Amino acid sequence: MSKAVHAARRLILGRALRSEHLGDQLLSKRLALPIFASDPLSSVAYATQEILLVLSLGGLAFLYLTPYLGAAVVVLLAVVVLSYRQVVFAYPSGGGSYEVANRNLGPSAGLTVAAALLVDYVMTVAVSVAAGVDNLISALPALNEHRVALAVGFVVLLTAMNLRGVRESGKTFAVPTYGFIAGVLVLIVTGLFRVVLGDAPVAESAAYSITPEHSGITGLALVFFALRAFSSGCTALTGVEAISNGVPAFRRPKSANAAKTLVAMGATAIVMFSGITALAIVSKVRIAERTCDLVGFTGNCDTDPQRTVIAQIAAAVFGGTTSVGFFYIQAATVLILILAANTAYNGFPLLASILARDRYLPRQLNTRGDRLAFSNGIVLLALAAGILIVIFDASVTHLIQLYILGVFTSFTLSQAGMVRHWNRLLRAEPDRAERHRIRLRRTVNGIGCALTGLVLIIVTATKFTQGAYLVVIAMPILFVMMKAIRRHYDRVAVALVLDEDSFDLPSRVHAIVLISQLHKPAARALAYARATRPSTLEAVTVQSDDTAGLQKEWDKHSMPVPLKVLASPYREVTRPIINYVKTIRRDNPREVITIYIPEYVVGHWWEHLLHNQSALRLKGRLLYTPGVMVTSVPWLLDSAEHVKYPTARPAPGDIRRGPLPAKTPAANNRP
């Protein structure tokens, strides 16, 4: 790594942390709330809007359903929070819904939950960032044409912040999260106080009417229509499971602190969602999927954006779009929606690390980076969300259709798993009082399973043709992929098990040093090969125009190793060597063949294009040949000798032992 790249890395990510500092990254409840709960708290900024957008398809005729649908969302949110509170205590090791389903319903159910959550975490980032950009545009409409660039930029910023570590990102996100909560609570109290005084706020769109896209809806069609609006409002529940996934990140007592944070998140989200929905009804907010369906809209409906519901409420309560209160709410909403993606930035890498630990995902996802965060998972999440944002033009309306299907899949299977968990405990529990408590807990999870299962059916039915079919396709693909990864790791594990032949010594070692010309790197490789004292040692070269000169040099220096020249009528290098090695293996199957390849070590990226190309091709072929060991013998060029490496900090005890001898790359060239 060059000095400039290293400096930039440290500037962005900060100083690397030692493994023993992992305990310092554990979270208090105060920091855990903005880290794990920013998604469900921020969703109140658009959950009411999603209900109104669907109802507005029928014009103004069906807006009377808003309070009933809002109440249903509140009940569902309360039940899910109580259900996950029990998960936190029952499974404190993390993994949340995945672990519950995996242990109680089997690996296939666990993988189904994992696939659903992985997809939904990606959607959380895409939707949250797109919604944040929407609210930014509500305050600054001129930015509308830069929507996608802004969204991708925010994803990059969030990625960099999370790569700095969990605790540091929590400190960064705490102020905007608490600022948003305070702002919305002030907005609700002020608005309801004005209602009590008889001065109810009036939204800028209150006088608009809406051209209905569907009219004459009655009977079952009306029920389906209402259920579709309800399913859109259920976006308020996204991210609730993140705390149960992240219990290991809390300070002790982990489960108790996680449970308290979960309840605080649920209570706050319910109050804010209820208040915003009430103010939207009182102030008569009008919003439509297509701006041109708003009759009375001022401006160009083809290009000018509508203000979001929360923006209209803030303007109505605080006295217009130029008021301090309006800009505060918009700024806080933009920040919380952008930072809401942080829930996914913590949930996705944690879940991916658990899946990697269980060998369902590549093991690199279980590796912590310089700042003790799961860096590979963070980068993977950012790439997937960024691609979605570009494909769907950062449109909340389009992205939201792919949302929450995965959430309710995991909710339902998790609650079903908890019911089975309590049944198992009930069979083994002799104490009467404890059996009664277990039955109560089972009832809570049973109700949660029934409600979330019903919502899952509703969400699937109402959103399938709107884009949710993409999620229905993606989840099975992820499921099959994780199964295949597990089978691969299982096969490798079986193949690597020690047996009675594992420690047998080879009968002979046949060493081959590949030579292209006689120079210092070649001499060093020969010396190293001789030092290993193989049974047979020979130098091998492929016939070329320089072969005669090489043979003359070989004889001139009286080299103690015979030089074998391989014929190459078609001027190939790789094929003659491979064929020669295979011939030795066929004639002496119990011999081990060791190939020594002199290689240049360069200091600049462009020098890689000028050296070692033949060596790379040879190694690529030889590594697939059974019974062949490939050894690279490095030789540092001048450019590599001057590469500056960061000075390592002394390890404990170094000062007592005295200074160590200097280590430089040039030492690799000494025989």
TrEMBL record:
<dbReference type="Pfam" id="PF13520">
    <property type="entry name" value="AA_permease_2"/>
</dbReference>
<protein>
    <submittedName>
        <fullName>APC family permease</fullName>
    </submittedName>
</protein>
<feature type="transmembrane region" description="Helical">
    <location>
        <begin position="327"/>
        <end position="351"/>
    </location>
</feature>
<feature type="transmembrane region" description="Helical">
    <location>
        <begin position="51"/>
        <end position="84"/>
    </location>
</feature>
<feature type="transmembrane region" description="Helical">
    <location>
        <begin position="178"/>
        <end position="197"/>
    </location>
</feature>
<feature type="transmembrane region" description="Helical">
    <location>
        <begin position="148"/>
        <end position="166"/>
    </location>
</feature>
<dbReference type="InterPro" id="IPR053153">
    <property type="entry name" value="APC_K+_Transporter"/>
</dbReference>
<keyword id="KW-0812">Transmembrane</keyword>
<feature type="region of interest" description="Disordered">
    <location>
        <begin position="648"/>
        <end position="671"/>
    </location>
</feature>
<feature type="transmembrane region" description="Helical">
    <location>
        <begin position="261"/>
        <end position="281"/>
    </location>
</feature>
<feature type="transmembrane region" description="Helical">
    <location>
        <begin position="105"/>
        <end position="128"/>
    </location>
</feature>
<feature type="transmembrane region" description="Helical">
    <location>
        <begin position="398"/>
        <end position="422"/>
    </location>
</feature>
<feature type="transmembrane region" description="Helical">
    <location>
        <begin position="372"/>
        <end position="392"/>
    </location>
</feature>
<feature type="transmembrane region" description="Helical">
    <location>
        <begin position="443"/>
        <end position="461"/>
    </location>
</feature>
<keyword id="KW-0472">Membrane</keyword>
<dbReference type="InterPro" id="IPR002293">
    <property type="entry name" value="AA/rel_permease1"/>
</dbReference>
<keyword id="KW-1133">Transmembrane helix</keyword>
<feature type="transmembrane region" description="Helical">
    <location>
        <begin position="467"/>
        <end position="485"/>
    </location>
</feature>
